[in-house]
Amino acid sequence: MRKRTTRLIGALGSLALAGTLVACGSSSSNSAAPLSNAVDASDAKHPEWSTYTFTIGDNGGDGSQALAKLTGVFDNAPYKVKFARFTYGPPLVQAAASGDIDLGSVGDVPPITGAAKEYGFKVVAVNRSLRPDQAAENIIVPKGSKLKTAADLKGKKIAVPQGSSAHGLALNALKSVGLTPKDVKLTFLDPAAGATAFNTGKVDAWSIWNPQSAIAVKNGARILVKGLPPIDQTSSYYVASDRSLKDKTKRAALTDVLERLSREFAWAVKNPDQYAQALSKEQGIPLSDAQASLAAYSNRVTPVEQSDIDLEQKLADAFLDAGQITKKVDVKPITDNLLPAGYDSSKLKVTS
């Protein structure tokens, strides 16, 4: 999900796919799963779908793979699915563009940086926060830090995963107090390296998402800037490969994949205790840490709306103005809704 990074799975030195994608097995059958019969899409209705295997990019350990097994949402699907795990968003967008994955969820910035590099993908849906007052990411400072406000970041080192939603938070936080990237020392580090730099005092602040932010705060760190509107978005975006979207039959099947994912997350919101257990398992963190981050994981899946395009365009323009990208990005052409107007997964009837 958005900034919601899975457990740290090793240092990431570049956007090379081999260093960022970890293949996971296809969802397994679970006869007790509550959603195994919730979606009616039979082989008889779509026999051609039986030849497809869809790879779902897991950016951030949002529990999608664990939830798939827990709910059985793909058990009756007339196609196969497997999951691929990424440490953060930019490599996932790159994988979608190359066709190595078919669908994945990222934060607000990776679609922008991906479009600036002319990757072939589209934003196809929004994972919209049900708790927009809950920050999914923050700029944090170590215990004992003398920094009190965003303005105090002037001249300081800030660890940031480059091209991620946390990069956007840092940029907007600086802009809100009249600073630019030139006024600070942005240190581009992947989440694992950022954690090391933060914990060893090599940086003064860290722009990062949950659960890393929540875990750091639990261990004594302090939130300097919350990732909340108007300086940050609380929604994330589903992206899909152009290759899959241009194939009408595969596009229809991919829509079914997205609807099943939306159903499992609708179930998760209504079953927070089991969702926290799924997050704990998938992220490899204590249950208490998963529970501490749970509010920021409450989302509903909806189509992309004009307001989302406007927010993304504003962010894209800010990245260009700040010199963080070198090519102007027009957001509207990289959107292609897979879901019908008015679709809202929070209104789905699910078995609890």
UniProtKB/TrEMBL annotation:
<dbReference type="GO" id="GO:0042626">
    <property type="term" value="F:ATPase-coupled transmembrane transporter activity"/>
</dbReference>
<feature type="signal peptide">
    <location>
        <begin position="1"/>
        <end position="23"/>
    </location>
</feature>
<feature type="domain" description="Solute-binding protein family 3/N-terminal">
    <location>
        <begin position="53"/>
        <end position="271"/>
    </location>
</feature>
<dbReference type="Pfam" id="PF09084">
    <property type="entry name" value="NMT1"/>
</dbReference>
<dbReference type="InterPro" id="IPR015168">
    <property type="entry name" value="SsuA/THI5"/>
</dbReference>
<keyword id="KW-0732">Signal</keyword>
<comment type="similarity">
    <text>Belongs to the bacterial solute-binding protein SsuA/TauA family.</text>
</comment>
<dbReference type="GO" id="GO:0042597">
    <property type="term" value="C:periplasmic space"/>
</dbReference>
<comment type="function">
    <text>Part of a binding-protein-dependent transport system for aliphatic sulfonates. Putative binding protein.</text>
</comment>
<protein>
    <recommendedName>
        <fullName>Putative aliphatic sulfonates-binding protein</fullName>
    </recommendedName>
</protein>
<dbReference type="InterPro" id="IPR001638">
    <property type="entry name" value="Solute-binding_3/MltF_N"/>
</dbReference>
<dbReference type="GO" id="GO:0016020">
    <property type="term" value="C:membrane"/>
</dbReference>
<keyword id="KW-0813">Transport</keyword>
<dbReference type="InterPro" id="IPR010067">
    <property type="entry name" value="ABC_SsuA_sub-bd"/>
</dbReference>
